[in-house]
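Reviewer has doubts. Consider these tokens.
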Amino acid sequence: MTVLTTQRLTLTPVAVGDMDDLTALWADAEFTRHIMGRGLSEEEVWFRLLRDIGHWQAKGYGNWSIRETTTGAYVGSVGVLDYRREIDPPFDAPELGWGVAPAFQGAGLAREALEAAL
């Protein structure tokens, strides 16, 4: 497994072991209000996790789980993703994605993680 590190963060490919942290994050109304407008159920989070694990297998890249190096606290995720979204106008290239838990927002962690992932 590839592990990326920055001055403050450790990034690992998303894995089943991230499920509890992801469930808590996606249930947080403050986190989801501009993304989905609602929290996600455990089942919905599980399917997102399986999709992201499969993305690594199919494409060789995907979402990284972000943790503080010193505490191990779950910060969020960041990655390069090819979700083949059905949007208009069509966008048929990989996209950058990130999500940072509200407690960690405003500290430049998403940028730091994204720079490492690229």
Residues 17-75+96-117 form a domain with the Aminopeptidase fold (CATH 3.40.630.30). Residues 9 and 109 are 8 Å apart (CA to CA). The mean pLDDT is 95.
